[in-house]
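Ticket #4471: structure output looks truncated?

Reporter: J.K.
Steps to reproduce: submitted the chain below (278 residues) through the standard prediction queue, then opened the result file.
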Amino acid sequence: MPDKPTDNPTYESLRVAAGLKFADGLAWSRSGWLAIADGRQKKVLRLKTGDAGVSELMASEGGAAGVAFDAQARLYVCETGARRVTRTDLKGKSETLAESFEGRKLNGPNDVTVRRDGHAYFTDPAFGSAVERRALDFYGVFHVSPKGEMAAVARWQTRPGGLALTADGRTLYVADADRHAVVAFEVGRNGEVDKPRDFVTGVAGVPGGMRTDAEGRLYVAARGIAVYSAAGKLERTMIDSTDCTNCTFGGAELEYLFVSARADVYRIQAGVKGALQY
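Returned output as attached by the reporter:
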C-alpha cells in the first residue's frame, strides 16, 4: 500500500468542461488552448482559456485516447480503435507514425509523449474488447526515433497505460494498470530506454495518464490525482473522490493542472508549475 500523504495543502479547482462522452487524453498547446481527446465521440476537442465550452478540433474516426504535442506543434493521437498513432501538422496534414510491429498490427495504442528532440514513446495495451483482436503476444512500450525507427523498449504481460517524461527527458514513467504501479526507465541521449524499476506500487485506483512538474514530482491520474515526490513518496492527493483518466499542465506559465474525469475536465491551481515537455 502507498504511504499516507504527509500533508494535504489546499488547492483551488474549477470544472471547465462538462457533458463529454469520455474525456481521456489531454495536451496543452503553446498557442494557448487545451486539446481533449474524447474516444466515444471519436473527436479531439479544443478548449480555449475563457471559453464557455469546447469546440471540435478534428475528427478521429479511429478513436482518440492519449494526445501530445511536439516542439513543432504537431499533434500526436493514439487512435485506439484503428490501432495506430497518427501525427498532424499545423496545416492539417496527417500521417501514420506507427501501426504495426514485426509484421503484426498493434493492440491499441493508449498514450503518447514526445521528448524535445523528437523521440516519441507510446504504450500499446489492449483494454476492454481490444483484447479479443490483439495480434501481438505482449503489451508493449514503444520508442519511435525522429527518423521513424521503431523499437519495443518493454514487452509486458501486464498492460501499460499512461506515460510521462521528466523535464530533462532522462526518465520515462510508465503506468502499469494491472499491477497498480508506476515503472521508471532511464532514457539515454539517443532516446534508448533501459533499467526499468518500480517507482511506486499500490496506486489507489487504476493509474492512467501522468505528468511531471518543474520540481520533479509525478502526478498520476487514478482515484483522484496522486502526487509523488521524485523519490516516489506520496505527498498528497487531489479530487480523490473522482476517478480520473488523465492530466496535463497548461496555462501561460504552466501554472494549472488540467484533469480529465470521464464526462468532465477540471482545472486545478496547485501552486506549482508543470515541467516543459517541448
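Triage note (M.O.): checked the attachment and the full C-alpha cell line is present. The CA atoms of residues 247 and 259 lie 4 Å apart.
Status: closed, working as intended.
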